[in-house]
Amino acid sequence: MAAAVPGATRAGAAAVLLLLGCCGPVLAGGLQDQAEQFFRSGHTNNWAVLVCTSRFWFNYRHVANTLSVYRSVKRLGIPDSHIVLMLADDMACNPRNPKPATVFSHKNMELNVYGDDVEVDYRSYEVTVENFLRVLTGRIPPSTPRSKRLLSDDRSNILIYMTGHGGNGFLKFQDSEEITNVELADAFEQMWQKRRYNELLFIIDTCQGASMYERFYSPNIMALASSQVGEDSLSHQPDLGIGVHLMDRYTFYVLEFLEEIHPASQTNMNDLFQVCPKSLCVSTPGHRTDLFQRDPQNVLITDFFGSVRKVEITTETVSLDQDVAGFESKFPEEELATEPLKYAEQLPVAQIIHQKPKQKDWHPPGGFILGLWALIIMVFFKTYGIKHMKHVF
Amino acid sequence: MAAPLVLVVLAAVTVRAALYRSSLAVFIAERVEVASPLNAWKRVVEGLALLDLGVSPYSGAIFHETPLIIYLFHFLIEYAELVFMITDVLTAVALYLAIQDFNKVVFKKQKLLIELDKYAPDVAELIQTPMEMHYIPLKVALFYLLNPYTVMSCVAKSTCAINNSVVAFFILATIKGSAFLSAVFLALATYQSLYPLTLFAPALLYLLQRQFIPIKLKSKSFWLYTMQYASLYLCSLVVIICLSFFLLNSWDFIPSVYGFILSVPDLTPNIGLFWYFFAEMFEHFSLFFVCVFQINVFFYTIPLAIKLKEHPVFFMFVQLAIISIFKSYPTVGDVALYMAFLPVWSHLYRFLRNIFILSCVLIFCSFLFPVLWHLWIYAGSANSNFYYAITLTFNIGQILLISDYFYAFLRREYYLTHGLHLTRQDGTEAMLVLK
């Protein structure tokens, strides 16, 4: 997996070196190209948050969906420490499972996506809207173990895959609560404000899934859904031995597509958009790229589904100037001024430290004091007689 | 008599100073039995802090003190402990002087009645002698200063102490006979908390008695004097309220203080009867029941005035007790004020029927208050009913105490004029019953 990359590029680098010997300027240009490729995406680590939101035996396929994506993502290099897997129910050890300790994603029990190395981070009743949002935003109680945290930074590419039962604008969790598309969009905006992702790929396989990405407004998000608003996502095939549908159509074809990918493949997102056309999926898959800065043509599948370490070996020195990657800075200079404050700058620390001087104390008005003491003196003299006046003056 | 009084004062001041320095001060200051929303020290500090920030202290629902208290504490807030100790001492001294004068009046009246042969022949043991009356003022001062309720109230820096001292000065002025001062202090006391308004009747009766004006509805001099006193009282009240307006240039204090006392919006538990009832009440009925409860305080004045018109100071005592029991936010400081008067009627001891049970009830309830509060609020194993049960029992104990004293007083008066050994028509021994 990761070893293939330097191997492939080593060959490429060797070829470049050979060409270097021949013609300099061309070589310099070739090396620049490679350096360009090096900086193409801008992420340094990959995370995946895979969520299955339904429980009960007849929702076997949602667990199988999630585990299939988990399998692919792990195969392509993302380690368990960088995957947050949330399964709302335990199908492998469900009493109704005729083949215990297995979850099959293909009929005739061809592909078991469960196994010894499946690490479920949030299981059963821990999969709630609150926990999901807390994972995304990072606002987690201090006692949460690392395996349950999304410790991404602003160079992380995050894949978020959700599956379950949904409707127009919501996704059902555990048959008792929902997350709305607005909440999800706000959570992603929080992530953006807190610099918790570089780019985000959001895939959802539910009925009317496209409604869930309608409300996104944060930059660098690409979204895919298995069906448009008003359409249902259908399941693929029942297995008569197990008795339930094993997979949803969209994820089945995505899984088929992903099985062709290896860590060095250059397949880009446009191919992923073509997966599962209407003839195969019955529903119309949708995608949204308007918030994404790069052209989907240039986005590799492995940018999100794999953890591809960029290792380029060369004996030449490459000077890195500003334009070496043709990499558009995220924020063109003129936009910097209107950029909202960074998180740390949002607290007016300078104002807090240099407190305003204490306001002048309140004093009772002169008229009041005068009146009160005049009254007291009048009472005194009325009681004790005027003759005391001469003692005062 | 000055020396023992000074000793008592010193002892009281020491006790208070010791408690101020101990860790109990904070604990006591937070107790709901001692600090009510009307007189808690925390709220005074909050109000003054708001004032320093340029906001009217009446703008929230925190501060319910009168502007004169604002004025007083604006300058004295650093010496708050000293102020409260001095207030307690002043109250005790005022009560001492008042009861001293009152004893002289009682003794004079008794002498007059004996000479006029108004007493039955066999009541020698009921007559009060100067010997036994000699120590009563000191006992009153002692009862007030060393009463645990007063000490707790002082340590909590509850402004109830200031209200008590104004009432004590009012009593002193009334007993000394100065109608003007009495009216001024009564106006101050009413201005502070609304209920001393009911003390107008006993003060008037006392002053009429002192001027030897008979209390007949047709008598012109009676109405003249009443009008004079009432106008003095009302004028001083109006002057004080208008003066308070000029402190903050707003009438905000009227709904905050008097509106609050009358409409009882804050239902924090206390030793009174309002909170639980209104916590359970539907909003639809709350206005009606607020009116009923408030009328209950003022209601007993007229019947008591009719019954006790010859004995206005006892009437004042009973009225003070009724205010302490039925007011909207009572605290133990209010209870301490009327309890200070109990030595004045120690000669009624032989007629008190339930004094043992009632004192036990009052003592036990005082101890159970913090226990059940802890169980309700902190341990969570009780609920408000438990605390309210103790409140109810405490108030029932107080009511029975007052009615016991009332009955004993009337019984003694009856025996004085009709003799100790009452017989019925057929010669058998008769029992006196309160109808």
Protein architecture, described:
With 393 residues, chain A is α/β, with parallel strands linked by helices. Chain A has a domain at 43-305: Rossmann fold (3-Layer(aba) Sandwich), CATH 3.40.50.1460. Chain A contains 14 helices and 10 strands. Chain A has helices spanning 4-22, 24-38, 60-75, 129-137, 181-193, 210-213, 249-259, 269-273, 278-281, 302-305, 333-336, 349-353, 366-384, 389-392; strands at 45-52, 83-87, 122-123, 156-163, 166-167, 170-173, 177-180, 199-205, 221-225, 286-288. A 7-stranded mixed β-sheet of chain A has the order 3-2-1-4-8-9-10. Chain A has a 3-stranded antiparallel β-sheet with strand order 5-6-7. In chain A, helix 1 (4-22) packs antiparallel against helix 2 and helix 3 packs parallel to helix 7. Chain A starts with a helix and ends with a helix. Residues 1-5, 19-27 and 331-336 of chain A have low confidence and may be disordered. By secondary structure, chain B is an all-alpha fold. Chain B has one domain (1-418). Chain B contains 20 helices and no strands. The mean pLDDT of chain B is 90. Chain A binds chain B through residues 359, 361-365, 367-369, 371-372, 375, 379, 382-383, and chain B through 51-54, 68, 70-71, 74, 178, 180-181, 184, 239, 243, 246-247, 249.
